[in-house]
Design goal:
Oligomer: heterodimer
Shape of chain B: globular
Helix content of chain A: 25-40%
Radius of gyration of chain B: 23 Å
Number of helices of chain B: 14
Strand order of the largest sheet of chain A: 6-7-8-3-9-10
Strand content of chain A: 25-35%
Largest sheet of chain A: 6 strands, mixed
Distance between the termini of chain B: 47 Å
Order of helices and strands of chain B: HHHHHEEEEHHHHHHHHH
Radius of gyration of chain A: 18 Å
Largest sheet of chain B: 2 strands, antiparallel
Strand order of the largest sheet of chain B: 1-2
Helix content of chain B: over 70%
Amino acid sequence: MATKGAVVLETRSLTMRFGGVVAVDNVDFELREGELRCLIGPNGAGKSTFFKCLTGQLLPTAGDVLIQDRSMLGEPPCRIAAAGIGVKTQTPSLFNGLTAREHIALAVERHHGRDTAAARIDEVIDRFNLGDLGRRLVGELAHGQRQRVEIAMVVAADPWLVLLDEPAAGMTHEEVDRMVALIHEINRNATMIIVEHDMQFIRMIGDQVTVFHQGAILIEDHVEVVLSDARVREVYLGA
Amino acid sequence: MPDSARNRHILVAAIGLLILFGLPVVVDLVTLLEISIYVVYAILGLSLGFIWGYGGILCFGQAAFFGLGAYTYAVTAINVGESTGPFLLAILLPLVFAALLGAMMFYGRISDVYMGVITLVVTLILFKFINSTANETWIVGKARLGGFNGIPAFPTLNVPGDPGALLDPEQFFYVAMVFLLLVYFGLHWLMTTRFGRVVVAIRENEVRAELLGYDIRLYKTAVFAIGGGIGGLAGALFANWGNFVSPGLFSLAQSATIIIWVIVGGLGTMIGPVVGAVLIQYITTLLGQQGVINNAFVLGGILVLFVLLLPKGLMPTLGQLLTRLRRAPRRPARRSAEQAEGGRDGH
């Protein structure tokens, strides 16, 4: 794996059990500054559970999560987010009773003072082409538009680490193309983890990939190496 | 602020001011006294309407803050001999109590069901405790708590700084109405601030709000405390209205009544709990004047009817109806315009 910057996120022997089921099994993981890492794996591989352990939505049964060398174990999601981490969940997770603009405002106002917030909100609205949607309640928007609002909201907070869980789910081909370009653009300023199971999308992003299988890491390498690996084809593609 | 919301506020303010200045002129003192208690109940309804409708926290024990406010006022007024300090304390103590209770529940990550149970139990404990203070050993300074007999007499509201200048019933009405308008518009203003936006966001989607970096426990505690303080304010006004407080203020029946006001008036609106409180209490007063039907039976029936037929409550349903009526005349106009256009094409 190509080395980029210093290690900014690390898990040590991370384990998550639900009763007798081990969803994440003793995972040691490292992410370096500036990386764009994809987590892939078949359904039930443990990638979303792993993701939730990173974001504080789940408290791991054992092990540790370190962000910039600081243990975040047991910290609530708000503290992890406040450390500069932007999270997009698997299904669009929005506030249906608020407008798209209010969503961006909520993200921006968390980090900006009143004097700079308005300009930043306008900037994000323009960047994500939300001008026409800005005044509409997000509960009335189509799925792809909701995905766009959520990612705009995540980016609006200027995170240095962005975690996206299935950002292309339910999108049209054109929307997926735009999403790929957007991910590369975000990656210019932020380290990223993307959880995805769409192999075509992973190829389009084309960077480092970690494959999960039965809660553990099966292989970590460049996308082309991973996709040509016989073990991956067997467990993931069923070939 | 959208134009429709501004118009609604102007309408409510106009009606409020009309009631404030017009009612004492046109109704007799007994009726004004009766309306004053509706105003107090409207403030109490708003306290739960804010916690539940905007904060998304169903509190089964709103009566706890109401009773605490009333008792705090009565006990301190007896000891101090004037009303200003006790009145402020009657708001502050329930606010602090709600903040502590809220912090315990929200930082403890207690689920909604258990939150309902805890608030219910807290009210019950206070009810039982106050009921058991009939013994003459239960004295706070000069004030006897009186147990099930309550506290029958204490200094009522006076002009701040002048304990001798007691307010008469008409002046009490003005005070209660001004507080109702202050609470109503104060809460509306609060909801337009960044704090209000975060509160609505938390109600809509807790996980998302937390992933944006907002500490939902802190915000919920703040909402609960504000609602507790407003409940205390209503309690202090209630104590002044009747110059009497009793353990019944903490009762489950009182808590259930507040929930009924909010459900009937409309959850998620500020005007709903106000209308619900006034309407239900007016019906209760009317029913109290007859002996044919049991009050509780009728109120229960009203609640069941609203839950089944108007689940959104009176005011949101009326709002929808008005919107539909406002749109209705446009359709024929559009049709006639289309016909006219078609006619032109045809010619």
